[in-house]
TrEMBL record:
Sequence ranges assigned to domain DUF4398 in this UniProt record: 14-89
Domain of life: Bacteria
Name of the featured protein: DUF4398 domain-containing protein
Species: Luteimonas deserti
């Protein structure tokens, strides 16, 4: 029973790795262009998590790493949405141009 009181949770290395991966994935999806505030917050949270880990504040590091992952996932989703919206607008403009050409040819 005394041993269970001394047992601690493992360091948040998996959470930090997941946060790094999420931030990189959002960056690859052009989050700097489409969701700069979200990716900025994610990067700051990741930096704070790494600093907390370096200072042996593992609980704080875990919380910050989870926050960084969530923020990066949000930035990723917003980036994909913005890219999709831009592609849709481009396709609609092409359709409008084609319709105008067809009407001119008639």
């Amino acid at each position: 029973m005394a041993l269970t009181g001394c047992a601690s949770t493992p360091p948040p290395t998996e959470e930090l790795a997941a946060a790094r991966l999420s931030v990189a994935r959002a960056g690859d999806a052009d989050a700097d262009q489409y969701a700069p505030a979200d990716i900025g917050q994610a990067r700051r949270a990741l930096e704070q998590a790494q600093a907390a880990m370096g200072s042996q504040r593992e609980s704080e590091a875990r919380t910050l790493a989870l926050s960084a992952s969530a923020l990066a996932d949000l930035a990723h989703a917003r980036s994909l949405q913005a890219a999709t919206d831009a592609e849709l607008a481009s396709r609609r403009a092409e359709i409008t141009t084609l319709r105008q050409r067809l009407q001119t040819e008639d």
